[in-house]
Design brief:
Layout: H1 2-25, H2 28-36, H3 41-48, H4 53-67, H5 71-80, H6 85-102, E1 110-117, E2 121-129, H7 132-135, H8 138-153, E3 164-166, H9 169-172, E4 176-181, E5 184-189, H10 190-201, E6 206-214, E7 218-225, E8 232-233, E9 235-243, H11 251-267, H12 279-294, H13 300-318, H14 333-338, H15 343-352, H16 354-357, H17 360-375, E10 379-388, E11 407-408
Antiparallel strand pairs: 1-2, 1-8, 2-6, 3-6, 4-5, 7-9, 9-10, 10-11
Helix pairs in contact: 4-5, 4-6, 5-6, 6-10, 8-10, 12-13
Length: 409
Amino acid sequence: MACSQLARRPLSIIRNCLSNSTSARRSPLYLDYADSQCDFGVFRRRFSAEVPASEHTNLIKQLREMTSSPIMDVKAALIDCNWDIEAAQTELRKRGKVLASKKSARTAAEGLLALAQNETKAAVIELNCETDFVARNDIFQYLASSLANLALSVENPPASAAGFSSVGPEYLVDLKVNLDHPKLSGETTVQNAITEVAAIMGENVRFRRGFVMSTPNGIVSTYLHACPRPGLGRFAGVLSLQAEDQISSSEALQRVGSELAMHVVASKPLFLTRELVSSEAMESEREILRSQAESTGKSQLAIEKMVEGRLRKFVEEVVLMEQKFVVNDSINVKLLIGGQPSLHIMSECHKIGDLLVHLDKLFCQTVLDILSKEVGSSVKIGSFLRIEVGEGIQREGTSSVSEPVAQAA
């Protein structure tokens, strides 16, 4: 009996010690110490209890709306910062920039083209990301539009012989851009803005290239295809129409310019005129066609005729002025510029009656006179370019392709 009582005494001693420890933990002295040491272990968890648990969900929602970061990252940042939303926002930005730098080597072949223009000048830029999901994000789209507007505002960009200016990353990344978006605001450099968006999106974001086209006498016409919103798209055609004399922009000039820009996107021309086709391109195509013709086993004379015929077909396919007009394939672009009517005008012609259908040539000459009088000068295409998102970028599982310059005159 005595032994059992002695055996219980250590248990009672331990129980008393734990009781004293609990009461000490509740003392004011212990609370002051916990407040001063809130960054460690259990003290930190007790400090976080100052923010009611009912408010945690609300804080997570607010920070998620402020940053667009993944919800698990938002929650982790708030816990690490003791539910201080401003400190958590700063922490997310730091983490995001580190992740953005790590992802900068990943392939970014998706994205958008952004276009900004006025009457005599147009700028188009390509902003890439890894997935089309990010390309549909409002923050990404806002940055793309901001970069296009910045490129348009550049004074005296370096000109090229093709009739347009390149304003790529080497020209724009150090310039200041003023952002006014709920989640992206303030004045910063282009590079910092791209890094910030990459941190928010969690993907590699890359400003790939940009071009500016202007004309002193005429108009610059543009066309965007696959547009999620005005000024953004995946395919872009930009074209300048120049007049011999000083003219003001007219409805007819704008209409034809828009149709030609659309034609550039659809038909993918490589050269403006037959004379501008390089001898290297012609010889390369000639060799390919000769090799194909020789495999038929026909005579040398027949092979030469086949090569020359196919070579003419090649020129018609890659030269803008020789291509069939995409709006009306019964004419080519050269005849259109020379006075052929647009589809709108031709449709009006056929509404008049069958008699005018048999008088197409006379009607077209009449339209040429009308357009010449309306514009007040003969018009020609000055230059053009066509851009497509991701063209020339090697994607995973594909062969290596060199990055092209925009197709242009």
